[in-house]
Amino acid sequence: MIKFDNVSKRYPEGHDALRDVSFSLNRGEMAFLTGHSGAGKSTLLKLIMLMERASRGQVSIAGQDLAQFSRDDIPYHRRRIGVVFQNHQLLFDRSVFENVALPLHISGYDEEDIGKRVRAALDKVGLLHKEKLNPITLSTGEQQRIGIARAIVHKPQVLLADEPTGNLDPALSEEIMRLFMEFNLHGTTVLIATHDLALVSRMPYRTLTLDQGRLING
Ligand code: ADP
Ligand code: ADP
Fold this sequence. Notes:
By secondary structure, this protein is an alpha/beta fold. It has helices at 41-49, 74-78, 96-107, 111-124, 140-152, 170-185, 197-201; strands at 2-10, 16-25, 30-34, 56-61, 64-65, 81-85, 158-162, 189-193, 206-211, 214-217. It has 2 domains: 1-80 and 156-218, Rossmann fold (3-Layer(aba) Sandwich); 91-155, no CATH class. It is built from 7 helices and 10 strands. The mean pLDDT is 94. Bound molecules: adenosine-5'-diphosphate (2 copies). Residues 37, 42, 163 line the site of one adenosine-5'-diphosphate. One of its GO terms (molecular function) is ATP binding.
C-alpha cells in the first residue's frame, strides 16, 4: 500500500532529511515510525501526503508512483489519506460537528451525506453526544479524538499520524492507540510517527526506526 524505493529528501539549503529509505507497508498493515527529533519522521509522512516531493527514489501509494501526480491531482490523492496531528489543528470558532465535517465540505459532499458520515465518525471515537459543543470546552484527549474523527470521516485507505499522543498522559495515549488499532482491524493501513518508545514497546506492531534520515530497522 505504501512503498518507498531508495528515497532521499534534501530540503533547499538543508542537509538530507531522508537518505536512501526503502520499505513497504502492506494493505491493512499497522506500523510505528520512531526516531529522535529531526530523524526525518515528519518528512517521510509529508512525502506520502505530497506536502513534499522526494529528491531521489520512488514513493508509491496503492501501486501509483507519486511522481506522476501533478499539482491538480493532489486533492484527489489526499482524499485517500487521513492525517492526525499532535496539535490536532481544530478550529475553535466552530462546533465539534463542523470541525469533523470540514474535509467533506471541501470535497463537495451534500449536507445529508455529511450528516451521516460525521455522526458515524464521531460515534467511532465516542463523541457523538458532544457534536454541538465547541471543542475548546473539551479535554485534551477529547480534542485529539475530534482530530481523529476528522481524519477518518472520508474513510481513507491510509491513516497517518504525526506524534498523535505527544501531549497526552500514558492512559490517554493508550486510549488513542486503541482507536488506531480498531481502524486497522477494519482494514485501514496505519502508520504512526512517535518518539514514545515505552508506548511502542507495549504494542504488538512492526516498528520502523529512522536515525538521521536512514532507516535502521523495519
Ligand atoms: P522529525 O519529524 O523526525 O523530527 P523532520 O522530518 O521534521 O524530523 O526533520 C528532519 C530534518 O529535516 C531535520 O534536520 C529538520 O530540521 C529538517 N527539515 C524539516 N523540514 C524542513 C524544511 N521545510 N526545510 C529545511 N529543513 C527541514
Ligand atoms: P516536529 O518535530 O513535530 O515534526 P518540527 O519542529 O520538526 O516539528 O517542524 C515543524 C515545521 O517546521 C514543519 O513543517 C517542518 O517542515 C518545518 N521545519 C523543521 N525544520 C526546519 C528547518 N530547518 N527549516 C525550515 N523549516 C523547518
